[in-house]
């Protein structure tokens, strides 16, 4: 099973990349968050492999965390690979996790291909599972200067797992914290993401 691919970006579409790894071009379906970089850039993707009778399909993700959310989404009845990708493309990962924790099914229905019943099943079945993902993988080194387990450390880890560099994430987080001195994780992340993506 292919678990990770590092190579040169040959082709790029909103939800598909072709990556040249040792002379072989691999086509990967990806969420919008993983479709970064320009043709010719080196990319490094975590891969989920699906083997069916008629095909082998690869799905690429920027982080292990994102891949794990994809896998957990697919455990929900009625959620296949394409809907799971749509969900990951529709909301930044911290927003998705906080939306599920808050059981905000209405917000999920704003994502194309996600109907009311599917949204309700996602929040019902994953509300206890998704928050665990941030502790399933080691925190990036940049989080080490904050008290482990603190809201700020969790927020910094989430931003770095989304692909933001530590100094950039720290700066946005500091500005967000100044605006929200006692803000909870969800509000802090939302504010930081607005600063990072004006």
Measured as a percent range, the helix fraction is 40-55%
Query: What Rg do the Cα atoms give?
Result: 17 Å
Strand runs, count? 5
Q: Give the ordered list of helices and strands.
A: EEEEEHHHHHHHHH
The low-confidence parts are: 135-145
Q: In what range is the share of β-strand residues? A: 15-25%
Shape: globular
Tell me about this structure:
The chain has 198 residues and is an alpha+beta fold. It is built from nine helices and five strands, in the order E-E-E-E-E-H-H-H-H-H-H-H-H-H. A five-stranded mixed barrel has the order 1-2-3-5-4. A hairpin with a 2-residue loop joins strand 1 and strand 2 (16-21). It is globular, with a radius of gyration of 17 Å. The protein starts with a strand and ends with a helix.
């Amino acid at each position: 099973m292919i678990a990770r691919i590092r190579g040169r970006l040959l082709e790029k579409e909103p939800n598909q990349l072709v990556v040249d790894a040792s002379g072989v071009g691999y086509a990967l379906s990806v969420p919008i968050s993983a479709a970064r970089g320009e043709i010719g850039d080196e990319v490094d993707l975590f891969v989920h492999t699906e083997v069916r009778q008629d095909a082998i399909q690869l799905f690429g993700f920027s982080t292990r965390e994102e891949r794990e959310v994809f896998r957990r989404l697919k455990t929900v009845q009625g959620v296949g690979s394409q809907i799971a990708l749509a969900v990951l493309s529709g909301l930044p990962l911290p927003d998705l996790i906080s939306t599920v924790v808050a059981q905000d099914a209405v917000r999920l229905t704003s994502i194309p291909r996600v109907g009311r019943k599917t949204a309700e099943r996602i929040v019902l079945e994953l509300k206890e599972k998704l928050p665990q993902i941030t502790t399933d993988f080691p925190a990036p080194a940049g989080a080490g200067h904050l008290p482990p387990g603190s809201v700020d450390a969790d927020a910094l880890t989430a931003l770095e797992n989304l692909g933001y560099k530590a100094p950039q994430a720290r700066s946005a987080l500091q500005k967000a914290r100044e605006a929200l001195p006692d803000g909870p994780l969800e509000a802090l992340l939302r504010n930081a993401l607005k600063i990072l993506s004006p």
